[in-house]
């Protein structure tokens, strides 16, 4: 039997039943990578010798009667996580030789759960793109169409899962970096509630792995089924043992409902700042129809929904002010002059990005206060609804675009060009207030490309969108291997 596209849940059951060994699963995964990854380029840092040793250890542990959540299951890890003995570069050439001394907390949790790490997956330069390519490791191609991107910044992980290179992967999300690659490659991903999963060791080199509470950014699971997302989230979730973990024990509430007919869902397919392409709109409608056919209460409008335009502005302001602080830009004084020259009436997304790049601390606090008002608005919203269904980006995977000037790129939406980074507004809808969001497959475009949507849920009620994803999989199907 070939195991490469079986779910992690199925692999765990087969391992427990003695139908297969971890060594067999690991050897099969490595053989598939060696055969197929030359054209995909998802696994940028193989770790096959240590993977085989970990598989042997897992089989011996099982023979002794041990059983852990992922014991013997082959997985991959995004390159941006520290792994002792392997380079962590974030795709930055100046750090190509940086090798951390210890594992990131999430890598440690994977290993403690018994997972076998096959290697690390590719990312964009500094994790700052919706594609995954860099000077060190090259370009990751979409398994469905090698001329198109697999997404970013967790594009290597999504491409690996779609190609059968391991059953699970861990990524991160600041600007849709879990959800966009899942949407482009036809897999599942979950952006957890902000602060739910510890991030220590998922840090740009050569910064020390400190237990810092990041703004906007989260780490999360990627898989080929929604049940596998839940399995991996349970491994990842929980505070850092160096800080809140000393006093807090995590207990996630159960999903609000178990039956589709009990869910109350708002469906969105239009954004005030950017149109939704026809293929993605069709995917949203397909999910909406499945929900309605299953008896869910489906609405298209609600006065309780926080203002989408203001939400997008707040998100871009927080995103760009934080990104510039972490990765200082050249010509800061020129940016200040350009921002000062903007008309007060200019409320475009470009203007918001430019102003955010030169924010003062006072500016940031004002935006943060407005974010808290949005969070309060979402609490009122989720008293009446259980989830929001909406796009992740306006289009399926687009052709590779390696123009070094990211602000000069554009995104083609049904034949019309729009600023490249304007497509982030849908990802920001969940990211800005810190809400959980599950990316789910929703069919294919007329060209045969995967199309996904996101299910946004209430804060710290991550099991609610995950359960909804599981119910949708039963009605409209889920992952399909690239043809």
> Any idea what the CATH superfamily of one domain is called?
Amidase signature (AS) domain
Gap between N and C termini:
20 Å
User: Oligomer, anyone?
Assistant: single chain
Secondary structure tally, helices: 14
| Apparent shape | globular
Helix proportion range? 25-40%
By helix and strand content, what is the structural category?
alpha+beta
Largest sheet: 11 strands, mixed
Beta strand %: 15-25%
- Which radius of gyration do the C-alpha atoms yield? 21 Å
The CATH top-level class label of one domain = Alpha Beta
User: Which CATH architecture of one domain is right?
Assistant: Alpha-Beta Complex
Using the coordinates shown, work out and report the CATH topology of one domain. Amidase signature (AS) enzymes
Please, what is the average pLDDT? 97
Number-wise, the strands total 17
The side-by-side strand order for the widest beta sheet comes to: 1-3-2-8-10-9-16-17-13-11-12
Protein name: Amidase
Pfam families: Amidase
Protein architecture, described:
This is Amidase. InterPro entries: Amidase_CS, Amidase_dom, AS_sf, FAAH2. Pfam families: Amidase. Residues 24-464 form the Amidase domain. There is one protein chain. The chain has 483 residues and is an alpha+beta fold. 37% of the residues lie in helices and 16% in strands. It has helices at residues 8-17, 22-40, 48-63, 105-112, 155-162, 179-185, 226-236, 278-293, 308-326, 332-340, 349-357, 361-384, 425-431, 463-476, and strands at residues 43-46, 74-78, 116-121, 133-134, 138-139, 141-142, 145-149, 168-173, 188-191, 218-223, 264-267, 297-299, 387-391, 410-413, 416-419, 437-444, 450-456. The strands form four sheets. The protein has an eleven-stranded mixed beta sheet with strand order 1-3-2-8-10-9-16-17-13-11-12, sandwiched between helices. The two termini are 20 Å apart. The mean pLDDT is 97.
């Amino acid at each position: 039997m070939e195991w490469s596209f079986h779910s992690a849940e199925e692999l765990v059951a087969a391992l427990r039943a003695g139908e297969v060994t971890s060594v067999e699963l690991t050897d099969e995964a490595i053989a598939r990578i060696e055969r197929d990854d030359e054209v995909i380029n998802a696994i940028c840092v193989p770790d096959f010798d240590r993977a085989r040793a970990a598989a042997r250890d897992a089989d011996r542990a099982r023979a002794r009667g041990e059983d852990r959540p992922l014991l013997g299951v082959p997985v991959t890890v995004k390159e941006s996580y520290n792994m002792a003995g392997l380079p962590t570069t974030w795709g930055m050439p100046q750090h190509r030789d940086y090798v951390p001394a210890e594992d990131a907390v999430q890598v440690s949790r994977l290993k403690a759960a018994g997972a076998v790490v096959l290697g690390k997956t590719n990312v964009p330069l500094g994790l700052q793109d919706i594609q995954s390519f860099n000077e060190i490791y090259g370009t990751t191609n979409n398994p469905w169409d090698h001329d198109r991107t697999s997404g970013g910044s967790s594009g290597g992980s999504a491409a690996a899962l779609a190609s059968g290179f391991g059953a699970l992967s861990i990524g991160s999300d600041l600007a849709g970096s879990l959800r966009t690659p899942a949407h482009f490659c036809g897999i599942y991903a979950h952006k957890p509630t902000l602060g739910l999963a510890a991030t220590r060791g998922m840090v740009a080199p050569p910064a020390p792995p400190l237990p810092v509470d990041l703004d906007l950014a989260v780490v999360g699971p990627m898989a080929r089924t929604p049940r596998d997302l839940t399995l991996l989230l349970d491994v990842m979730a929980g505070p850092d043992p160096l800080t809140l973990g000393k006093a807090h024990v995590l207990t996630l509430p159960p999903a609000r409902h178990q039956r589709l007919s009990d869910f109350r869902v708002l469906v969105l397919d239009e954004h005030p700042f950017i149109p939704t392409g026809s293929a993605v709109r069709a995917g949203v409608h397909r999910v909406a129809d499945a929900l309605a056919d299953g008896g869910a209460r489906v609405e298209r409008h609600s006065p309780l929904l926080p203002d989408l335009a203001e939400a997008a502005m707040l998100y871009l302001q927080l995103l760009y002010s934080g990104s510039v602080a972490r990765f200082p830009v050249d010509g800061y004084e020129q940016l200040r002059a350009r921002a000062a020259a903007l008309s007060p009436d200019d409320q475009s997304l470009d203007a918001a990005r430019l102003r955010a790049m030169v924010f003062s601390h006072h500016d940031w606090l004002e935006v943060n206060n407005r974010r808290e008002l949005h969070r309060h608005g979402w609490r009122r919203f989720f008293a009446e609804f259980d989830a929001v269904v909406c796009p992740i980006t306006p289009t399926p995977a687009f052709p590779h675009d390696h123009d070094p000037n990211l602000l000069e790129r554009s995104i083609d939406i049904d034949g019309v060009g729009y600023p490249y980074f304007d497509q982030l507004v849908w990802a920001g809808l969940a990211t800005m207030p810190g809400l959980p969001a599950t990316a789910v497959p929703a069919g294919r475009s007329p060209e045969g490309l995967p199309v996904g949507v996101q299910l946004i849920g209430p804060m710290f009620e991550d099991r609610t969108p995950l359960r909804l994803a599981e119910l949708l999989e039963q009605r409209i199907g889920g992952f399909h291997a690239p043809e």
